[in-house]
Design goal:
By secondary structure, the chain is α+β, with helices and mostly antiparallel strands. Helix content is about 35%, strand content about 20%. A hairpin with a 2-residue loop joins strand 3 and strand 4. Helix 10 packs parallel to helix 12, helix 11 packs across helix 16 and helix 17 packs across helix 20. The structure holds adenosine-5'-diphosphate.
C-alpha cells in the first residue's frame, strides 16, 4: 500500500468544501452520480468506436445495452445501516457503483489526488468569505468528487479500468493524505464506498436517496437503481425477515430527446443544475429540434452568472457533443464560437459519424451547419429577449456584454446581429444604450457616432474632452472595457454612420468650421512651437483646439495609433514595440498655458510644459514616467 500526500491545493480545497459549503452537503450525491454518468458516457463511446473491445455492440448506439445484453450501463446505489451489535459498532455506509470506464492506478492518483484545472487554485485564493459560501462553485471547478467529504469520515474508491484486469482501491479520510493499493473487482467500473459520519447517517435511507435522485439526477441518461432491504411480514404484521429489492429510481431519459411540449421549466432547470453543477437556475434556455437536411437537437442554457473561468485562456467548454445520444466530447471549443463560451448545453447530431475526431469535426460540413445554425438561433433568442423582456436582458448584458463585443471582431458573418445586441454607457442616458437607440437620439446635423475609450466610467465621464460635445448637445458613448478600442475600430460603421473617437486627433476637426480651424492654427502657431521645443521627444505632436473648456490639456492619439491605454494593455500582455508617443492637445485659453506662452524663463517653460503633459496623462489614469520628478516640479510651481 502506498500512502501519499494530497497536493496542497487539494488540501486547501477540501478544507474550503468541508468548512464553507456545509449547508448544501446533499449535493455530494449529485456530484458522484454525475461522475458515474460521465464514466458511462465514456465507456459507451469507447465500445462503439474501438473494434474488438469487450462488449462492443456495433449498433447505432441509441441503446444503453451492449450486444450481449447482460452489461447494461447503469448506476447502482446501495446502503447499509449501521448498528451496535454485541458492543461492536458498524458504520453507516453508502455505495455508489457504476460499470463505466473505470480508472487505472495512475488515473486514481491524478484524478483524485490533484486538481486538474490550473486556474482553480488561483481563483480559490482570490475568493471572498461570501463567495466561499456559494456552492455553485463546487461544480464549476470540477471538484465535485471532494464534496463527498462533507458527509463522510472515510471514502474508498475501488476501480477497474476498461481493458485492464487489475483493480485498485483509493482510500482517504479527506484530511491530507490518501493511499492506493491493489484490490479485487470482478468487472470494469467504479465503486465509491462512503463511510458516513455521525451527523450524516440519514443519507443511508431509501427515501432520502430517492428524493435526492428525483430532485437532482432524474434526467441522467442511464438508469439509477437503488438496492434496499424491505421487511417481510406475516398475516399478523410481524416481521418475518427481509427481502432484497432493486428498483430504478430515475426516469433515465436524456432530457433533450423529449418533446418540448412534454417538458416544464422545472425540468429544464433541474437538468441544467444537475448537469452543470449549478445551484442557480439559468437566465434562460433554448431547446431546438432541427429536421430536414441536417437533423439534430440542441439544448442551450445561459447561466445566471458568468462562468468563473470565462476570461481564463484555459476555460472549459460548456457544450457537450453527442451523436445519436452517444456522448462524444465535452472538450471541444469549436462547437460554438469562442465569444459564446459562456453558453452551456448539448448538441446531439443524427448525421455525424460516431468515431468523429477533433480534426474531422473542424472540417465537417454537418458540424459547421449545426454550429452556424446554433449561433443564429442563440443570437436570435438574445435579440428576442432584448425586445420582449428588457429586465432579463439587462441581467444578461451585465454578465455577457463583453463576450458579445468580442464577437464583433471574431464573427464577421453575424456582425449586424451582434451590433444590435451589444450595449454601451453613454453621456446621453443612465445605464446602457444600444447603438440603435443612440442613432435615434442623434441630432439632425450630427455626422458621426462619437465615443471615448480608455479608463473607468468615472474617468471617462469626467474627461475634459467631453465638455465641447456637451455644450453642443452631442451624445458620446463611454466605452469602458479594455477591449472597446479594438471593438470600436472593428465596428467602423453602424448602419452607414461612422464611429469616431473623441480622443483621436481627427475628431477635433468636426467641431470647428474650416475658417475657425485656419484662424486657430495661425493664432496658436507660437505656443505650439514653444511646447514642442520644451517637450522634445516626449510627445509625438502638440496641437491646440477650441474644444477644451476647464482644463489645460488632454492626451489624444492619431487616427490609426493605439491610445495610451491600449499601449498599456499591450505592455501588460508582454507585447513591446507598440509604443507611440502621446499627442498633447492644449487649450490656448487656459490661464496656465497662457503663462507659459508669455514667459521667457526657459526653466519655467520646460518644467511647466512637462507638468501639463504629465497632468494630462494622470487625468486619464496613466502614471507619468517619473512620478517623483513630476511631483517635485509640480510642487515647485505651486510655491
Ligand atoms: P470533474 O468530474 O468535474 O472532472 P471530480 O473531482 O468530480 O471532477 O472528478 C475528477 C475526475 O475523476 C473526473 O474528471 C474523472 O476523470 C474521474 N472520476 C471521478 N469519478 C469517476 C467514476 N465514477 N468513474 C471514472 N472516473 C471518475
Amino acid at each position: 500500500m502506498q500512502n501519499k500526500q494530497f497536493k496542497t491545493e487539494v488540501s486547501d480545497l477540501l478544507h474550503l468544501i468541508i468548512h464553507s459549503l456545509y449547508s448544501h452537503k446533499e449535493i455530494f450525491l449529485r456530484e458522484l452520480i454525475s461522475n458515474a454518468s460521465d464514466a458511462l458516457d465514456k465507456l459507451k463511446y469507447k465500445r462503439l468506436t474501438s473494434s474488438g473491445a469487450p462488449g462492443e455492440s456495433g449498433n447505432e448506439g441509441s441503446s444503453n445495452r451492449a450486444a450481449n445484453g447482460s452489461d447494461e450501463l447503469k448506476i447502482n446505489i446501495s446502503y447499509t445501516e449501521g448498528s451496535t451489535e454485541q458492543g461492536k459498532e458498524t458504520p453507516y455506509v453508502l455505495t455508489i457503483s457504476d460499470n463505466g470506464i473505470g480508472m487505472t492506478e495512475s488515473e486514481l492518483e491524478e484524478n483524485l489526488g490533484t486538481i486538474a484545472h490550473s486556474g482553480t487554485k488561483a481563483f480559490l485564493s482570490g475568493l471572498t468569505a461570501e463567495q466561499k459560501q456559494d456552492s455553485n462553485l463546487i461544480g464549476q471547478f470540477g471538484v465535485g468528487f471532494y464534496s463527498v467529504f462533507m458527509v463522510s469520515d472515510k471514502v474508498e474508491v475501488v476501480s477497474r479500468a476498461f481493458g485492464s484486469d487489475k483493480a485498485y482501491k483509493w482510500t482517504s479520510e479527506g484530511k491530507d493524505s490518501y493511499s492506493i493499493e491493489e484490490a479485487a473487482k470482478d468487472s470494469t467500473g467504479t465503486d465509491i464506498i462512503i463511510y458516513l459520519n455521525n451527523d450524516n447517517t440519514s443519507f443511508a435511507s431509501r427515501w432520502r436517496i430517492e428524493d435526492l435522485v428525483k430532485q437532482y439526477s432524474n434526467h441522467i441518461a442511464y438508469p439509477i437503481y437503488l438496492s434496499y432491504d424491505e421487511n417481510k411480514y406475516d398475516d399478523k404484521y410481524n416481521i418475518t425477515g427481509k427481502e432484497h429489492k432493486t428498483e430504478q429510481i430515475n426516469s433515465a431519459q436524456a432530457l433533450w430527446t423529449r418533446s418540448k411540449s412534454s417538458l416544464k421549466e422545472e425540468d429544464y432547470n433541474e437538468f441544467y443544475k444537475n448537469s452543470y453543477g449549478e445551484t442557480e437556475n439559468p437566465l434562460f434556455y433554448l431547446h431546438t429540434k432541427a429536421e430536414g437536411a441536417t437533423e439534430y437537437t440542441t439544448l442551450f442554457f445561459v447561466p445566471a452568472k458568468a462562468p468563473f473561468d470565462m476570461y481564463h485562456s484555459d476555460y472549459k467548454s460548456g457544450v457537450k457533443l453527442y451523436v445519436k445520444r452517444v456522448y462524444i466530447t465535452d472538450d471541444d471549443k469549436e462547437l460554438l464560437p469562442v465569444y459564446l463560451r459562456f453558453v452551456r448545453g448539448v448538441i446531439d447530431s443524427e448525421d455525424l459519424p460516431l468515431n468523429v475526431s477533433r480534426e474531422i469535426l473542424q472540417q465537417n460540413r454537418v458540424m459547421s451547419n449545426i454550429r452556424n445554425a446554433s449561433v443564429k438561433k442563440l443570437l436570435g433568442e438574445f435579440k428576442r429577449i432584448s425586445e420582449q423582456n428588457p429586465e432579463l436582458y439587462t441581467k444578461f448584458v451585465a454578465e455577457y456584454n463583453r463576450p458579445l463585443k468580442e464577437g464583433l471582431y471574431q464573427d464577421y458573418a453575424n456582425r449586424d446581429e451582434l451590433l444590435e445586441l451589444v450595449r454601451f454607457n453613454s453621456t446621453g442616458v443612465e445605464g446602457y444604450t444600444s447603438l440603435k437607440a443612440y442613432k435615434e437620439r442623434m441630432k439632425a446635423d450630427q455626422k458621426y457616432i462619437y465615443y471615448i475609450t480608455g479608463g473607468t466610467l468615472d474617468i471617462l465621464k469626467n474627461s475634459p474632452l467631453l465638455a465641447a460635445y456637451k455644450e453642443k448637445g452631442i451624445e458620446v458613448l463611454l466605452m469602458t472595457d479594455d477591449i472597446d478600442e479594438f471593438v470600436a475600430g472593428s465596428i467602423g460603421k453602424y448602419k452607414d454612420v461612422e464611429l469616431k473617437a473623441v480622443n483621436r486627433s481627427d475628431a477635433i476637426d468636426d467641431l470647428m468650421t474650416d475658417d475657425e480651424k485656419k484662424q486657430a492654427k495661425e493664432e496658436s502657431a507660437d505656443i505650439v512651437k514653444k511646447f514642442k521645443d520644451a517637450l522634445g521627444d516626449k510627445v509625438k505632436d502638440v496641437r491646440t483646439s477650441g474644444r477644451l473648456k476647464d482644463t489645460s490639456a488632454v492626451i489624444i492619439a492619431d487616427a490609426n495609433d493605439p491610445t495610451m491605454q491600449m499601449q498599456q494593455l499591450f505592455k501588460a500582455m508582454g507585447q513591446t514595440g507598440m509604443e507611440v508617443k502621446p499627442i498633447l492637445e492644449i487649450n490656448p485659453e487656459d490661464a496656465f498655458i497662457k503663462r507659459i506662452a508669455d514667459s521667457s524663463d526657459e526653466v519655467f517653460v520646460k518644467d511647466g510644459a512637462e507638468v501639463v503633459l504629465n497632468s494630462a496623462l494622470l487625468a486619464q489614469g496613466i502614471m507619468p514616467e517619473n512620478p517623483a520628478e513630476y511631483a517635485k516640479k509640480l510642487h515647485a510651481l505651486l510655491v
